[in-house]
Fold this sequence. Notes:
Blueprint: E1 9-10, H1 14-17, E2 46-50, E3 56-61, E4 67-74, H2 88-95, H3 107-113, E5 117-122, E6 127-134, H4 138-150, H5 156-174, H6 177-189, H7 203-208, H8 211-221, E7 227-233, H9 237-247, E8 276-280, E9 286-292, H10 301-312, H11 318-324, E10 329-337, E11 344-351, H12 357-373, H13 378-394, H14 399-413, H15 418-428, H16 431-441, E12 448-454, E13 464-467, H17 483-487, E14 506-509, E15 515-520, E16 526-533, H18 547-553, H19 564-574, E17 576-582, E18 587-594, H20 598-611, H21 616-634, H22 637-649, H23 662-667, H24 670-680, E19 686-692, H25 696-707, E20 731-736, E21 743-750, H26 759-769, H27 777-785, E22 789-796, E23 804-811, H28 816-833, H29 837-855, H30 858-870, H31 877-886, H32 890-900, E24 907-912
Parallel strand pairs: 3-7, 8-12, 15-19, 20-24
Antiparallel strand pairs: 1-5, 2-3, 4-6, 4-7, 5-6, 9-11, 9-12, 10-11, 13-20, 14-15, 16-18, 16-19, 17-18, 21-23, 21-24, 22-23
Helix pairs in contact: 2-5, 4-9, 10-13, 10-15, 10-16, 11-12, 12-16, 18-24, 20-25, 26-29, 26-32, 27-28, 29-31
Amino acid sequence: MKLRSYMLLGLCLSLILSVLPFSGNVTNAVTPAATPPAEISFTQGVQKTVLENGLTVLTKEVHTAPVVSVQVWYKVGSRNEGKGENGISHQLEHLMFKGTSDRPVQFGRLFSALGSQFNAFTSFDETAYFGTVQRDKLEALLTLESDRMKNALIGSEQLTSEKRVVISELQGYENSPEYRLDRAVRKAAFPNRAYGLTVGGTKADVEKFTVEQVRNYYQNYYSPDNATLVVTGDFATEPTLKAIKATFGQLSKGKKTNVKASPAVTAVSAAEKTPIVLKQPGSAALLQAVYPLPDIKHPDVPAIDVMDAILTGGRTSRLYQAVVESGLASSVSGSAAELIEPGWYEISATAAPGQEVRKIADVIQKCLTKLQQEAVTSAELNRAKTQLQASFILNNQDISSQASQLAYNQIIAGDYHYIEKYLRAIAQVTPEDVQRVAKKYLDPAKQTIGFFEPTLADGQAGTSNGGSGRTVENFSPGQPVDPAELAKYLPPTTSATNSTQQSLPQQFTLANGLKVLLLPDRSVPTINISGQINAGSVFDGNQKAGLAVLTATNLMNGTQTQDALTLAQSLEDRGAGLEFRATREGVSISGQGLSANLPILVETIADVVQNANFPPEQLELSRQRELTSLKVQLDDPRTLGRRVFQQAIYPENHPFHSFPTVESLQSINRADVVSFYHTYYRPDTTTLTLVGDFEPMQVKSLLNQAFSKWQAQGKPPILNLKTVNIPSDLKQINTVIPGKAEAVTYLGYNAIARTDPRYYAALVLNQILGGDTLSSRLGTEVRDRLGLTYGIYSGFAAGINPGPFLISMQTAPGDAQKAIASTIALLKQLRTQGITEAELNTAKRSITNSYPVDLANPSEVASIILNNAVSGLSTAEIREFPQRIQAITMTQVQKVIAELIKPENLVIVTAGPGNSKTNGK
């Protein structure tokens, strides 16, 4: 299901996107029965309680892992904003982390100290806050959420600093042509409705917000009777409800407020709607078409979503076949926004190189007309139903997603049971229903369409200028936040209970050398496969950069017995998703489906790694899509900046220096791909991890049968990378991309590998330095105190081979140098003053307390086991990791600071509009 990330603005949106009942590009599926398995119930065990103050409480005990998720959703979003206050919901969301009258500290630091994986987002109809922790932290989370429901600090100091952060965020969105096109199209489609505004707001409105204005908005909408609290996970209902009543139950109802309603949707004749054309600097040409829809409670919604799945649900879908497989577009997607008020259906496409978006629009219209005139086939209908049913099962494997599903249905549809009513209705949709809603809602007379036409040929970036030198600003960072001082604001936690010891995967090796790790998990009837083949872009060579990517993306384009469409149908019909993606060090294999679909997943993996035949026409289409992707990367400050940063760190003869270019992609022929495939796709360099509902002995038999004919010849290729030294002095490069509004900066140098004995101490240090933008030293200094960035992070990219230590941040162009200087000053402070014992202990607790949350998600567990295996670590690492973190000493961290923190030797790359000045020679 696709929903553009910028529609759900906030600090991070990753969690909720996977569970909203919006149709779209759904590629995972369930069995052709078009009903979920009998043992799956999304609402079974849910208890609804309404407190006297109006707070709706949903509790669901799930005792599969020792963690709980606490989420508070408010029924307020951009839909509720009046003239001159576009973005006030989003602004308030930011302020909710600035502290309360009883706890005047950054709440991100409190959540981090509890080991919570937390975040928030704002959308059209709702604003949500969520955190997932070990079960003994449940009452602490309830206390913090109830505190900020009524006592948030909204003063001039908080508003001034967070306005600057929000504007930085908004300017970052302006870098995206897709965002700008969406804004223009929806504004034209809904000129008199709040849904026609961007969720994040406008810079002009944000700059004018007053403390009184934001405080009144908070008092109007942030109250128990306008909120839903959801708790899912390993807890007992009755004592938890008692704790909820003791915290939230003490809060009073909010002010009675008249919720602003948008005008009814009216059709605008096609004659009045000429296409919107944006001719601006950018990369690829884009298309977006919008059609008005009813609200989420309308009985047509299930048929609309089935219609969308038929149009855009995977490779077998009509629009994919019509515009992507034909070579007109590099991508196409659809999504149905069914909201509290009437929403919209959206179709988006990115043109392939040299193709006209208007031609794509014509082909799409022909597809829509055919859907209106002819009934869909039973195969299409069943496949669409299967995809929709499965998207909910597969995306609700962890308790955080289950909580979000319940909250969304309660807030938007008014009933947490909505999902099951919806899925029953999906099963009843007929071909006639699909044809009827296509005629009703895909009316050309109601369409609003827009085109983005880039004005820079080939999406090339502007000139780069560089040099070495030092920034001249002299910043004195504030003193680090003392965790001991912070601790007095932390609510008490209940006594910790003994957690069940993490099960270890079974490991074995097939006769051909293929390594397998199995971890049964019967909590949900699903399968999660993570794998890696050591066939990444490190083996490309500069002249053929992109070869590993083209090889991996063509695996699913046909084998000796199945063509691309047959492969896609075999997976999508049965309810499985499978993807191969080349990374720097390997080709990742990602598969997901219901447990009944394990055989088709394994058989397809085995077929493509042994028998891929790389049809020339499909290879050419893949090349064109990669060329489009390259244009987009060169036009994005984040990806171009990282590319320039990487190439500044590693010498030209180093594999980590290599990136695809137009010339290298065009030089790759089929013989190159076939040769790369036969050389590097080998069983003895392949690792597969399976986590889910299966019987190990049956899986072993299945794997032996599927891969028995895959044999390797000779010894596997060996990669010997030379040691890369850090620069002798500071080096700074500015890369100009015309038409951008915000700059992205990377600072760092080559560092360590995953197996480096300093790795665990480096993780602890990084948690203190920049592991979380709201709780780290970098976040405290550069984001909170100075307000220079929306987000700032640091990390060690430690893989099989040493990767970079890097700090990344997004700033206004004029603030880039200030942010760089303050970051360098903070690194120098770290070198001279070190860290405190309290910081060390807090960081260790934060990492180890959040680790069980990762282990509560079967998909995440599969990735952790795989990463440990390919790094050469023991299978016991998944169990022993917390102990390794807890064992880190101050002496070890001081050693890491001395050896790995080098503020005088940074490579600094800033990519953006070009008006950030470099001081120095």
